[in-house]
């Protein structure tokens, strides 16, 4: 009886149709209800041979092994693409910017339903790759014949302070293909625009990318819309209150010894990666360290001092956002700065324009120019601006080894991918099997 119900064509149609309808309601675009007609034909009327790769009514009602494999692969690709687009996506930690909270070699699942999945801006793309085709350096994995505006579906909640978030790199709208891991705008400041555009053999072709095909970054959310953030001598304050300390947070320290070298095995026990060990001499080192590691290093018999590296307030670093002498900030000292919120209005002046210029021109697609000391937006003189999106401030827990909002500013809401939720595998690149597998980090939720 149960078998007959489960194999009944009307039961299949009602079940699949109900699931599909719920998905359309979640998507919020009711034009997709047209798909119910296709589902009805697949399970009930069978007028159209939708599975064209399969023989219709084969002898003995059995397909060949090749067709069965093709059928299984097609189903797997469609199912995995759907899950990856709307529910969870795998992500690998490529750099040390979040150490020791997240380590290079951690394999994560990123929840897209935590904040609500974005519908793709470029829906036509090669499955399971991000922006370039496999085995190529520059061939696009997507086409831009169809472009969709930003839209986010309902999620379980909003981004909160201290959430670990995956997002599209805000300065990834323009890329020099041979330097994809470096901000194009930072490269322009370092090498000059003319050199980058005129030396394709060194820098590669310069291309533009839509939001959903920019490189993915992972950082901790420090400020949400409306927050006032400030950093003084490495201490972050949010709305005037010191930020919560994380056990994995690191800063760079100068370590001096009595002239004898520090045993590498001792550094292994402190979980200091080989790439993070800067050796100036047998008497002086630089390491990124947590507070706990600082305490342990001070107990070493040959260590004479452990001093935190800090830049002084007022020392301007031109690499730090907003790259203007009007804001003489550096990696350890910046702000106060209010995070823009959707619908809020800010006064615009030539002095504070560097803070908002990229928002106005790039993230919110306006024409802007400054003439005779006056600001013009879309051809009209402007003394204020109302934000169209929410913005966030992201920073790495490895404070002195993280390219984050201190360097490129605000992260727009339409760049948010999801919340880093779960470590399912962790591999130590400095070790070989079986010690390469960090068993203690596997199957842990991310805090």
Write a concise keyword list for the protein shown above.
single chain; 447 residues; alpha+beta; eight-stranded antiparallel sheet; four-stranded antiparallel sheet; 23% helix
Description:
The protein has about 450 residues and is of the alpha+beta class. Helix content is about 25%, strand content about 25%. It has 11 helices and 23 strands. Strands 1, 2, 3, 6, 20, 21, 22 and 23 form an 8-stranded antiparallel sheet that branches. The longest helix has 22 residues, at about 65-85. The radius of gyration is 26 Å and the shape is globular. The mean pLDDT is about 90.
Structure described in brief:
The chain has 447 residues and is of the alpha+beta class. The protein has 11 helices and 23 strands.
Q: What gap, in angstroms, lies between the N and C termini?
A: 49 Å
Tell me the Rg in angstroms.
Answer: 26 Å
Number of H- or I-type helical stretches: 11
Report the helical percentage: 10-25%
Number of strands: 23
Q: Shape from CA axes?
A: globular
Structural class: alpha+beta
Spans with pLDDT under 50 lasting ≥5 residues? none
The largest sheet is: 8 strands, antiparallel
Q: Average pLDDT value?
A: 90
Name the beta content range: 15-25%
Helix-strand layout with pairing:
Blueprint: H1 2-7, H2 9-27, H3 35-45, H4 65-86, E1 88-92, E2 106-111, E3 164-168, E4 174-176, H5 184-191, H6 193-198, H7 200-203, E5 206-208, E6 216-223, E7 228-232, E8 235-238, E9 241-242, E10 251-257, H8 264-269, E11 278-281, E12 284-289, H9 291-298, E13 303-308, E14 334-338, E15 345-347, H10 353-363, E16 368-371, E17 374-377, E18 380-381, E19 384-386, E20 391-395, H11 405-408, E21 411-412, E22 416-426, E23 444-445
Antiparallel strand pairs: 1-2, 2-22, 3-6, 3-22, 4-5, 6-20, 7-8, 7-14, 8-9, 10-12, 10-13, 11-12, 15-19, 16-17, 17-18, 20-21, 22-23
Helix pairs in contact: 2-3
């Amino acid at each position: 009886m149960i078998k007959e119900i489960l194999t009944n064509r009307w039961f299949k149609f009602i079940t699949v149709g109900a699931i599909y309808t719920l998905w359309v309601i979640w998507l919020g675009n009711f034009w997709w209800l047209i798909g119910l007609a296709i589902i009805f034909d697949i399970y009930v009327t069978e007028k159209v041979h939708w599975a064209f790769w399969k023989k219709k009514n084969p002898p003995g009602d059995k397909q060949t092994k090749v067709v069965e494999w093709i059928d299984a692969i097609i189903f797997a690709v469609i199912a995995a693409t759907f899950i990856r687009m709307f529910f969870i996506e795998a992500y690998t930690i490529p750099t040390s910017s979040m150490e020791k909270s997240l380590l290079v070699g951690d394999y994560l699942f990123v929840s897209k339903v935590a904040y609500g999945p974005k519908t793709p801006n470029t829906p036509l793309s090669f499955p399971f790759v991000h922006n370039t085709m496999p085995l190529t350096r520059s061939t696009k994995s997507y086409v831009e014949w169809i472009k969709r505006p930003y839209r986010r579906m309902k999620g379980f909640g909003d981004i909160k302070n201290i959430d670990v978030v995956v997002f599209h790199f805000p300065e990834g709208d323009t890329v020099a293909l041979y330097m994809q891991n470096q901000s194009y705008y930072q490269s322009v400041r370092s090498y000059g625009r003319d050199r980058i555009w005129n030396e394709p053999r060194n820098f590669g072709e310069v291309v533009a990318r839509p939001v959903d095909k920019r490189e993915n970054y992972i950082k901790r959310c420090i400020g949400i819309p409306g927050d006032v953030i400030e950093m003084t001598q490495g201490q972050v304050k949010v709305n005037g209150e010191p930020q919560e300390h994380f056990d994995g947070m690191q800063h760079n320290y100068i370590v001096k010894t009595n002239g004898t070298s520090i045993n590498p095995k001792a550094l292994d026990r402190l979980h200091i990666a080989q790439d993070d060990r800067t050796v100036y001499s047998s008497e002086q080192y630089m390491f990124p360290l947590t507070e706990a590691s600082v305490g342990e290093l001070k107990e070493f018999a040959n260590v004479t001092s452990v001093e935190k590296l800090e830049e002084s307030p007022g020392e301007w670093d031109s690499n730090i956002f907003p790259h203007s002498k009007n804001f003489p900030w550096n990696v350890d000292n910046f702000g106060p700065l209010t995070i823009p919120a959707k619908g809020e209005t800010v006064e615009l002046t030539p002095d504070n324009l560097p803070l908002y210029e990229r928002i106005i021109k790039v993230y919110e697609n306006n024409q802007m120019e400054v003439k005779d000391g006056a600001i013009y937006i879309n051809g009209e003189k402007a003394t204020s601006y109302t934000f169209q999106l929410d913005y966030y401030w992201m920073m790495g827990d490895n404070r002195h080894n993280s390219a984050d909002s201190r360097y490129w500013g605000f992260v727009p809401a339409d760049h948010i991918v999801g919340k880093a939720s779960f470590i399912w595998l962790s591999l130590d690149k400095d070790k070989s099997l079986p010690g390469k597998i960090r068993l203690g980090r596997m199957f842990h939720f991310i805090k």
